[in-house]
UniProtKB/TrEMBL annotation:
Chain segments carrying region Disordered: 40-86
Biased composition (Low complexity): 40-55
Protein name: Uncharacterized protein
Source organism of this protein record: Mucor saturninus
Comp. bias intervals (Pro residues): 56-66
Length: 324
């Protein structure tokens, strides 16, 4: 394993289970351990792998008991290596699930974004399970994690017309803002694999935007926060840039010249505005992979978008990805 972000506090080697639970932090090395069959005629380069986006190959299964001569056993092992496929998603860790919950049910209410809702432990599990891979967490396990975390307080009993129920009062993000589900897990898995294979030559950055509306500042900031969380989880980006009170039809190059950056402190992981992103595009020696939620999240004016891509040579060498 290798450290993705160069954090010296992270281990240099970790277990396979840890890698599968948090694949965005670590890189699986292809070496002499047999992850890719040594019988293949040649090992393609990283650029070739990223261009063709091959189906991920899993580590070899445990050796089978001998059932014949040695040659036939070796042949069956080699054949099984090429047919074992990684699943479209991996089981998220406890920390990842709790972080996800704190974005879906923030501790403090946000005007126009959250609604105050009383939910039982079973209702919380049913709600969360729709956004996680099957079997990622059990109901009892989730309830225990939330109780030990303590962020939502203790459960309380409430009487209904037919019975007494036990649960908590939550600030639940409205469903229209809870677009965390991935329509095609295999597609996202291929994209993430592509990002890992090309990370040495291409930097992945995310861009989030919020229009100038009559909604409160807290509501708009929470919307930007939710966008950034979704993009980080999906695209394994290295940096996030954003723009507040900006029309989707406006020229990207002309945005955020007012130098107002106080709002950036309220958005986790967002390190700069549009002008900071443009400076990054000009200064970065790598190609740039720019990722946004949809066209409205970047720019709906195709002429402005085409002009922005054409004059930013590093970006035009890379790609603009739309993750919906």
């Amino acid at each position: 394993m290798l450290i993705v972000r160069g954090d010296p506090t992270c281990p240099m080697t970790i277990s396979r289970l840890k890698y599968e639970m948090e694949p965005w932090w670590f890189v699986l090395l292809v070496g002499d351990s047999g992850i890719i069959p040594s019988t293949s005629p040649s090992t393609p380069s990283a650029s070739a792998l990223s261009a063709s986006l091959p189906t991920p190959i899993a580590p070899p299964p445990p050796p089978l008991p001998p059932q014949g001569n040695e040659d036939s056993d070796t042949s069956s092992k080699s054949s099984s290596l090429s047919s074992v496929i990684l699943p479209g998603s991996v089981t998220p860790s406890r920390k990842a699930i709790l972080d996800f919950l704190k974005n879906m049910m923030p501790i403090e209410p946000v005007q126009d974004i959250t609604t105050e809702t009383f939910l039982t432990e079973e209702a919380v599990f049913t709600l969360v399970a729709a956004y996680l891979p099957d079997g990622a967490v059990k109901k009892s396990q989730l309830a225990e994690w939330m109780a030990k975390d303590g962020a939502w307080g203790v459960t309380k009993k409430r009487r209904t017309q037919s019975e007494r129920i036990q649960g908590r009062q939550y600030n639940l993000v409205k469903e229209s803002f809870r677009d965390y589900r991935w329509v095609d897990l295999n597609n996202v898995h291929q994209f993430r694999r592509h990002v890992k294979f090309t990370k040495d030559s291409t930097m992945t950055i995310d861009y989030v935007r919020r229009s100038k509306t009559t909604k409160s500042l807290g509501s708009k900031l929470k919307s930007l926060q939710l966008q950034s969380v979704k993009l980080i989880k999906k695209s394994l980006c290295e940096r996030v840039f954003g723009s507040l009170n900006t029309l989707s039809s406006s020229d990207i190059i002309s945005r955020d010249h007012n130098n107002d950056k106080k709002w950036l402190d309220k958005i986790t992981n967002c390190i700069g505005n549009t002008q900071d992103m443009i400076d990054e595009l000009n200064a970065c020696l790598k190609k740039i992979r720019l990722v946004t939620i949809d066209f409205a999240g970047c720019c709906t004016n195709t002429d402005f978008l085409r002009n922005f891509v054409s004059i930013r040579t590093r970006l035009s060498s890379g790609l603009l990805y739309i993750l919906t």
